[in-house]
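sorry for the late reply, my laptop died twice this morning and i had to redo everyting from scratch. anyway the thing you sent over, i finally got around to it. pasting the sequence first so we're on the same page, its 596 residues, then the predicted structure underneath. double check i copied it right bc i was rushing
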Amino acid sequence: MEISVVHISLQPNVRKCCGRDWERLRNGRQSLPVRSIRRPFRFVLITLAGLLLPFLLSSPLLAREDSARLVFQKTAGVPKTSVYIVKKGEWLAYILRKHYGDVPVSLALVRSLNPKIKNLNRIYPGQRINLPVREEADHPETADADRKDSASPEAVYRIRNGDSISRIILSELGIAPEEALPTYRLIRRLNPEMENMAQLPAGQTLLLPPAPGREPPVPPAAEPVQTAARPAEQEPEKTAVKIPPAGEGLTAIIRPVVGRMRGTVTDKGNYFIPLGENAQVTLDCFLIPVVELDDGTTVLLDFGNRLSEDLKGLIRKAWPNYWFLAGDELREEFAALRRIVNNSRKYGMDKAERPLILTAKPEIQVYPDWIIAGRQTGDAVPYRQGLFLLGGGERPFSPEIRTFAERNGFIITEIAGGRVVGQPASRPAAPPEIADLKDLKGIAFAERLLSILGEKTVRNAEVVIFNQARDGFNLSITADLLLDKGERRLIIHTKKLPEQFVRILKEAGTEVILLGDAERGRPLIDSLLKGINIPVSFGYFSFRIPAEGNRTRLAATLPALKATAGSQPLYLIDFDLPPHALSLFLGAGGGRIIRY
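ok and here's the structure:
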């Protein structure tokens, strides 16, 4: 195992602070008077002592593997200030543009100069604000760099769900981890209205500096200087061997689950965490994977217990949305996943004690093993993801069922053999058409329904009642609908015929089914189907997945009129049914569904 320490890099610009005194001291001609260094270094020494003290006193930190690197950069002296009196109708961004033009100003610096103003976004006319005075001559190199940055065209970036400032800097801009801190400071200056970089609201925009491919990159920080280095740390980098984390199986479950929550899991490359304006932590994600949820919650998976309590304290102080899980907390898969999710303010994960209702009519219930649910916010439909643990021989849900569930706000994640079952490569089959008769009534309804059942009918057919050769005169009627069914002949009529006509027709083998012209719904279906000797009954018909076995993962109940025509059942319903729900009811048994 490679043993090294957390790297600390200091970049004081002593020469600029001390002028000729430093030259004389370096050349050995004289000692440096105390009064020459007292004022320039007092602020720097106090700041560095406060930052370094936890590391110098923490012996466990010096024994960690090289999984995190802490980098400090120089802290400027106390800046000169001027007092500005707020006028009516002014706000901070307007004042900064008015006072400094296009030159970016650090909002953190303005905030530190005005500790008595709790919220700089709420200022009032007559209020006094301390503003820093620019001193470009004191730091020509920094001033040149700032002018160059301000002259370069900034890019407007729209924040996406799950974005973090680290991902944007490292991925979107392609900045190396050792160059991330200057870029972070520049982004803060370009976006003074963005007070909390730990929570980037989706949909809002950020001004980003040009990417290195288009403009010269932000000057990198100096290489870290190793302190209290052990002999093993001096070996060439190519001989170092990284030990993979013990949680590859866990990340195989976490990654797709978090991905379906619009989050990310990073287990390759480096991850950058800024600590204020002057320090950064760079993590090796191969050893310490990083989980980011879309509400800004970030969880570091410290499988090897590499992060010291002091370092965790520094990170949490700067970023309250960061959490840490150590080795003992990552042993059991679902307990670890639950800790990750429950650290979020937006989500919660619990064992599913009862089924969840996807739709009320028809009633469709799912029986997950675990449920991840979003917190209820207003009238919005909360997020829901169900985790199903498949036993031996259990088959995953069909693509049609997955599609139906997702369209009803429920994400299905199935886990078998310690891994998430992948989404099917093929798209779900096009759902069968649901015959829609809800706008029809009377003869039009009867004609369409009989056609669905495979019966051939004739509209406005002439039917003879009295024949001249037999009865001495001719008399016929025009039937609204005529159906020949084997040896039987059926007249479906909307107007009542004289009893004598009905008797004569029946003696000739023709039966009359009387329907109301405006009749519709269940009475019409009963009269028609019973008249043609097709049995029909109303009931609640249940379906479950899997169809066999003691364990149910999905159950559906369909209230319908059921008719049997041929070998397949016919279900007539009086409500709208989503097309992809058909596979729940017509999977194994087949049949048809009609909306009336």
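The CA atoms of residues 498 and 504 lie 10 Å apart.
thats about all i looked at so far, will dig more tmrw
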